[in-house]
Design a protein that fits this description.
about 15% strand; about 40% helix; binds N-carbamoyl-L-aspartate; single chain; Rossmann fold; five-stranded parallel beta sheet; four-stranded parallel beta sheet; alpha/beta
């Protein structure tokens, strides 16, 4: 089973993955056999290492594909590279700067392909970790007010998360600079499909929020770097913003955070992004088990 887009998952599948992750946290993991390969054509810390850690905890073996020292340098095609990885591993975890590349890899490979982020398109396993963290911290998800804050236009985590949250019956507030709203097609799609209530704002205002989900300004995806810098200065979460919010509001971030959250917030009870990053291991064990068809 591949995992390329949140659209490939239904509510029941998500619940099954969460149940597995909860059991893994409570009772530990089962020993599994197999080899996974991490094929990251773009930088990564958490996604790559937490998948590797997940696989190793399960007793599986990991082979890491390093583009810079591979035959890609000699001009070998992406397609042939994927065919080779498919020969040597039982599952491929891929990250690539081009939208749609994970779907293409899944078409070429016989083994499961898991999307660890394709361009500005999707990052479904991150969305699962995010929603799992909200449930764990808040004890529920349905009916929560969730504010998404920052560069909502370029962040792939946002696209997968929007779809996953809409499936979970939450109320959404989108707070972004003008022109960096999420893709209008996604908004129309989730409004139509899930009747999600969505409010759009252009200034920080977190009065009703139960959860604030921050994303960084994705400077590498801006044609005009000066524009990115300007926005970075305006869209920051300060401790003073949280003082005006609900006392039990939590702050999440897929990380890496650069300077969009002040250091004071890190030390506050609201910050849950390091716990969120730790949840990556049990959730990704559950994802590997699900995609690799393990009972
Ligand atoms: C994100 C990514 O690479 O999409 N990081 C992650 O996987 N946790 C977020 C980002 O780069 O802003």
């Amino acid at each position: 089973m591949d995992m390329i887009s949140m659209r490939d998952l239904d509510k029941k599948t998500i619940e099954t993955i969460f149940e597995r992750a909860e059991n893994i946290e409570k009772f530990g993991y089962k020993e599994r056999k197999g080899i996974i390969t991490t094929a990251f054509f773009e930088t990564s810390t958490r996604t790559k290492l937490s998948f590797q850690s997940a696989a190793k905890h399960m007793g599986m073996k990991v082979i890491d594909f390093v583009p810079e020292t591979s035959s890609l340098v000699k001009g070998e095609s992406f397609s042939d590279t994927i065919r080779m990885l498919d020969n040597y591993a039982d599952a491929i975890i891929i990250r690539h700067p081009k939208d749609g590349s994970a779907r293409l890899a899944a078409k070429l490979a016989k083994h499961p392909v898991i999307n660890g982020g394709d361009g500005a398109n999707e990052h479904p396993t991150q969305a699962l970790i995010d929603i799992y963290t909200i449930k764990k911290e808040k004890g529920k998800i349905t009916g929560l007010n969730i504010s998404l804050f920052g560069d909502l236009g370029h962040a792939r985590t946002m696209h997968s998360l929007l779809y996953g949250l809409a499936m979970s019956d939450v109320n959404l507030t989108l707070i972004s600079p003008k022109g960096l709203e999420p893709n209008a097609e996604i908004i129309d799609e989730i409004k139509k499909e899930f009747k999600t209530e969505i409010v759009q704002k252009y200034e920080p205002d977190f009065t009703d929020a139960d959860v604030i989900y921050v994303v960084r300004v994705q400077e590498e995806r801006f044609a005009d770097k000066y524009e990115a810098k300007k926005i970075k200065e305006q869209f920051k979460l300060e401790l003073s913003d949280l003082k005006k919010a609900k006392s039990n509001v939590i702050v999440l971030h897929p990380l890496p955070k650069i300077d969009e959250i002040s250091a004071e917030v890190d030390k506050s009870k609201h910050a849950k992004y390091f716990e969120q990053a730790a949840n990556a291991v049990p959730v990704r064990i559950a994802i590997l088990e699900y995609c690799m068809g393990m009972e």
